[in-house]
């Protein structure tokens, strides 16, 4: 099959370096990653994905898969290979009677929330609407509704997948259940998901938004945040972002999302009442408004992220994080702390491959900058900050969804735990024995 035949076989578009659309089609979220694929196959459905795999096999091309294009490792694009690009496959169908949503493999959380909220329903997703539903869910999924409804992958009940051999496979609790288990956290290792089915929950309004603290009070608010979520409220998800302003004063953004019946819940009062509060933008609003509280420029900044799951946040670790954010010395990089309290702990751990639900928090140093001359300094800051967190690490592994491409396999194995990793490898041998899908947080077949 040559390029002309590929064009003729695909319902979707084929984009090469000769096409005007090429440059706008090859970029991703992280401006640090700049790659030049030979072909972009913008698929229109599962049959196109099978044809693209065929083409890759015939021409021995490396394969990258693009969902929402958000992965900081830049896994959605490769040099000289083929990109299986699902960015035209963004449909989301909602069966409100059955409380199920069926999302195509390139849908974003913005697409998903718009469709499900039409019916007053939700599934727990990511906090930035341009992030891909597939990439995020296949790696776990932490967001504004984690305490209430668990990880995104806990709500994944079915997947339609095209394997690198071009076979269409369904996975659900009744059919290929082991594959569904692997897809609940094991990443894009087994095939290209062309449809993902989610269990939905009723939700309309939330009490959410953000609280911004500046200066010396940040130390106390960090402790207060830890203590509030440590009581494991099931109706309150909460994350914090620790940064610095231009004057190098510490800044803390607290991102609560409360879904209970109280209009002034005590947990939020405990957070709101602390000294140093410079902005209180917490209010009752729609879930769609909540999903726009956090935004992040796409393709504009250079990013390098590194972190650990930790069991707890002792004072000593919080003080280390304050020292590390002072060492960063400039905005807009930050330390993101996501709490895993509540529902993730209630879910049967054997139902999916995600290996971190028993951890207390996900702590990540997000270096963010624009000037390439700062590359070395910013990357060093992120790595050294992760090293400072390492003594409290839950498993030595990190969140696969936030990993850069330079993490050693030991970190990926540790992210899952040895037994889960072995089981994932056995399934990899079954569904992708030649490791065609290796541009990801890779589980090699052997
Ligand atoms: C600004 C920003 C905000 C984020 N917020 C959150 C958050 O709130 N919660 C959270 O948990 N994570 C979050 N993430 C991390 C995010 O979950 C991962 O980066 C995830 O990989 C993004 O998926 P994507 O489809 O957008 O990415 P892509 O770069 O398109 O894909 C990444 C990888 O996912 C796999 N993949 C994607 N689509 C498919 C598919 N259809 N079938 C098979 N494999 C596929 C492939 O292995 C691919 O290489 C965020 C990332 C960014 C940059």
Topology:
Blueprint: H1 3-9, E1 13-15, H2 22-26, E2 39-42, H3 46-59, E3 63-66, E4 82-85, E5 92-95, E6 100-104, H4 109-117, E7 121-122, H5 133-138, H6 146-149, E8 156-162, E9 168-172, H7 177-183, E10 192-199, E11 201-202, E12 205-214, H8 218-230, E13 236-244, E14 250-258, H9 266-272, E15 277-286, H10 287-290, E16 302-310, H11 315-328, E17 334-339, E18 361-369, H12 375-389, H13 409-416, H14 418-431
The structure holds flavin-adenine dinucleotide (FAD).
Give a brief outline of the structure.
This protein is an alpha+beta fold and 446 residues long. The chain is built from 14 helices and 18 strands.
General description of the model:
By secondary structure, the protein is an alpha+beta fold. Helix content is 28%, strand content 25%. The protein has 14 helices and 18 strands. It has helices spanning 3-9, 22-26, 46-59, 109-117, 133-138, 146-149, 177-183, 218-230, 266-272, 287-290, 315-328, 375-389, 409-416, 418-431, and strands spanning 13-15, 39-42, 63-66, 82-85, 92-95, 100-104, 121-122, 156-162, 168-172, 192-199, 201-202, 205-214, 236-244, 250-258, 277-286, 302-310, 334-339, 361-369. A seven-stranded antiparallel sheet has the order 15-12-14-13-17-18-16. Strand 8 and strand 9 (168-172) form a beta hairpin. Helix 11 runs antiparallel to helix 12 (375-389). The radius of gyration is 21 Å and the shape is globular. The relative contact order is 0.13. The model has no long low-confidence stretch (mean pLDDT 96). It binds flavin-adenine dinucleotide. The site of flavin-adenine dinucleotide has 37 residues, from strand 3, helix 5 and strand 10. Flavin-adenine dinucleotide binds next to strand 3, helix 5 and strand 10.
